Amino acid sequence: MPNRLAQEDSPYLQQHKNNPVDWYPWGEEAFAKAKEEDKAIFISIGYSSCHWCHVMEETVFENTTCADILNESFVCIKVDREERPDIDKHYQEVHMLLNRRAGGWPTSIFCTPQNKPFFAGTYIPPESKEGSVSGMGFIDLTKLIAQKIGEHDPKLFENADEIEKFLEHKEHPKEATVLKEEFLQNFMLQVKNNYDTKDGGFSVAPKFPQASTLNALITIDRLFADNSAKAMVVDTLKSMKKGGMYDLVDGGFCRYSVDNMWLVPHFEKMLYDNALLCNVYTQAYLTYKEESFLETAKEIADFWYNFMSEDELFYSASDADSEGEEGTYFVYGYDEVYTLLAENGYENIQTMMDEMQITPHGNFEGKNIIRLESGKKPKYFDEVKILLQGLRKKRDYPFCDKKVQTSWSGMMIHSLFNLGAIDAKYTQKAVKSLEALLETMYIDGVLYHTTLIHKTPKIEAFLEDYAFLAQALVTAYKFTQDELYLINAQRLTNKALEKFYNKGEWSFSSGEFVTKAEIYDNTYTSSVSIMIDVLISLGALLEDEKYTHFAFKTLEYNSYELGRRPVHYPYMLVQMFRYLRGERIIKANSANLSQNSLSLVNVNYPFVQFKQSNENGFMVCGDKSCFANTDDVHTVNALVQNSF
Prior knowledge:
Helices cover 49% and strands 13% of the residues. By secondary structure, it is of the alpha+beta class.
C-alpha cells in the first residue's frame, strides 16, 4: 500500500511512495507526531537522478528489517533537495558541523523528538562492517539510536542542544579589504596549483567541470591577455568534449567524471551543468574562434530541446540508471557496433572502431563509451552518430525528472540568448522559453521555485530563482531591446533586495529556514555573485546608482574572503573586476543593434551592454559619459579599448 508520499508532486518523493517505510513529507504533521510519541526523527534528503539515492532505497528503504525498525521507533521524513534547497542547505551545514567535511546525497539526518539533529551521514549500508566503528550499518545504528532516545540518554540530548547553538551562531566576515585587481595574482596561483596539466580541469577524480572557473579564466584572458589562462581554458574544454562525460551521441554533459581523463561519467545529466557549460563553450568560441567549441555549445542546447523539454519548458535532470543499471542506455557492445557498421556498408570498420575507442574488452565494465581521443570528429561521424542513436532508441531511456526549476531554467535561457547572437534560431527559442517560464512561475507578482510541467507551483522562490531569472531577463533585453524584460528584471531585483538583502549580506531563503546564501561557486554559480552581476547591469542600464551601491556593499562585505581565497569565488572575482573597470554601453538604434549583434559580441572587453537610442551609428559610453561614436561597427572594438 502506498505511503503518504503518493500525494506529493515531486518525482523523487513519488519514487519512494511504495517503500515499506512509513514516509512523511516535510511538514508539521511529522514533527507533531514525533513530539507526541517521543520518537526520534529520521530525515532522508536526495533527488530523483541521484545514483546512490537509488542504491540506498534498494538496500535500506526496501529492506523490511530496516523498514520495521524505522516504522516502530522513528518518524521518517523524505525531502527532495531540488524542491526544497533551503532544507537541504540547512542539513548540509549540519553534516559539515558534525563530520568536518562536506556531505552529499543521499543525506541521512537523525534528530531528537524535538527536531534537534545529533547525527549526520550520507549513504549508510544496511549491515555493519566488522571491527569498524565508523562503518556501523543502518540496522545497528537505528537500533542504537532508538535505544538511546527511549532511555532519554542525557549525553545525546546535551549534544543535540550544543549542535543547535552552533547552528544558531552567525559568523560575520572579518574587516573589509580594499577591492583591487591584485586579487588576480592569488587567483591564478591557486588555480594553477589545482590544474591538471595532462587532462585539464582543476582537481583529481571525481572531476567536475567547474564552469565558473573556466568563465573567470576566459574573462581574465580578455582583460589581461593572460596566455596561461587561455591555455588552461582551451586545453580543458578540448579534453572535456572528447567523449565520456560529454555524450558524443545525443549531446549534453553528464554531471562529473569518475576518472581524471573525463572518460567514465556519473551518467545523470543536470540542467544547470549543461546551461553553464553551453555558455562557457559559447564564450570560448567568441574569444578563441575554435569552431568545435561552437558546435559543442549548439549540441548542448539541441540536446535539451530534443530530449529534455516540453511546451518550451526545461526538465531538471535525467537519471544515471536505466534497466536497473548505471549507464545501460549510453554504452555499446563491440559486436553490435561492428555489425551495425557492416550492415550499412562501411569499409575500414576496424579503423573506425579504433578511432571511436570501441574494443572487445570495452572501456566501461566490458562495454564501450564512445570517445574520440584526437578531439576531432572524422568525416563519417555525423552519419554514424545517427546509427548509434538508432541503437539507443531500442533501449529504455533513463528516467527524466520533469520538474521545472526557475533558477536552472534561467541559466539555460541566459545561455541561449548569448548563443543566439551567433545563430538567431537560439534567440527565438530563448524568447519562447522565457515567456513560458514567466507564465508558469511568475503568477500575480509572486515568483515560484519549482513545479511539475502542467501543475500549479506551490513553493515560493529562493534567492537563486530571483538571481538567475533576473540575469536571464537582462540578457534578453540586451539581445532584443524589449524594455519589458528590463522592467521585469528590475521588479525581481527590487523584491530580492527586500526579501534577502541586509547590509551586504544575502539570505538564501526567508521562510521557515532563514539560511545564509553561499558566496562560493560550488555545484553551480553562487546566487550572491549572480545578484552582483544583475545589480551592476541595472545600475548601468537604468543609470541608477543605488543598484551599483548594493553591488559594491556585497563585494565589500565579502572582500576579505575574496582576496584570500579567490579560487572559491571565481564569478564574484569577475564581478569585482567589472566593478573596478566599469561597464561599457554601446548605444545605437534597434536595427543597428539587431543586425550587428555578432560583431558587437565580438568586442574583446568582457563587460559590455547594448542600449537602444536614436543614434544612427554606434556610441560607446561609460557610467556617466560617452567617449566616441562611429558609423562603422568594425571600429567599435577599438573605440571600447581606447576608452580606458
